[in-house]
Write a structure and sequence with these properties.
The protein folds into 2 domains: about 100 residues, Orthogonal Bundle (Peroxidase, domain 1), CATH 1.10.520.20; about 70 residues, Glutaredoxin. It is an alpha+beta fold. Strands 2-1-3-4 form a 4-stranded mixed beta sheet. About 60% of the residues lie in helices and about 15% in strands. It contains 8 helices and 4 strands, in the order ααααααβαβββα. Strand 1, helix 7 and strand 2 form a beta-alpha-beta unit.
Length: about 180
């Protein structure tokens, strides 16, 4: 939890800089590059290892990352503070904030069978109209829901699955006894 809170603070600082420079897209890209190198690459354990000289780790970061100077400073700060492995959490927090600024929502849609691309696009359009935001849909398939659709946007869940309707019907019938 503490790592997530710290990551959010770093993301907020990056967001301030991005908004000031009107460069959300550039910061999104740079922070994803930082996360790829600092937290997800083969070099990540080396960069997080306090036994390796800080100057060596910082020199490596400078050589490897091709990002704007302020993003490079953030990368160096993360390495210096021993938080390099939190770089993905920082990037994810930044992306959530940037989505809010740009009016983008992410929806997870679960159906019993695969959706055709045009069906997914139609759902995406309806959700965008209903929410007044640009909605990006990620479709999943779960045969256990039997039919219908389950839509999750943020912490809102709309369960229109046959499985849930059958469970409700069962509870109603059990209550009649």
């Amino acid at each position: 939890m503490a790592n997530e809170q710290a990551a959010k603070r770093y993301a907020q600082a990056a967001m301030s800089l991005a908004l000031e420079a009107n460069a959300l897209a550039a910061w999104r890209s740079d922070l994803n590059d930082l996360a790829a190198v600092l937290a997800e690459s083969d070099a990540a354990p080396l960069l997080a290892d306090g036994r390796v000289a800080l100057a060596t780790r910082l020199a490596f970061v400078e050589r490897v990352l091709d990002v704007q100077p302020l993003a490079l400073n953030l990368a160096k700060l993360l390495v210096s503070k021993g938080r390099s492995l939190d770089a993905r959490t920082v990037a994810d927090a930044f992306n959530r904030m940037a989505d809010a600024v740009e009016g983008i929502a992410h929806a997870q849609i679960t159906t019993a069978v695969d959706l055709a691309p045009e069906q997914a696009a139609a759902i995406e359009q309806k959700l965008s109209e209903g929410l007044g935001k640009k909605v990006i849909v990620r479709a999943n398939t779960d045969p256990a829901i039997i039919g219908g659709v389950v839509v999750k946007v943020g912490d809102h869940l709309v369960d229109g699955s046959v499985r849930t309707r059958l469970k409700q019907l069962r509870r109603e019938l059990e209550g009649v006894r």
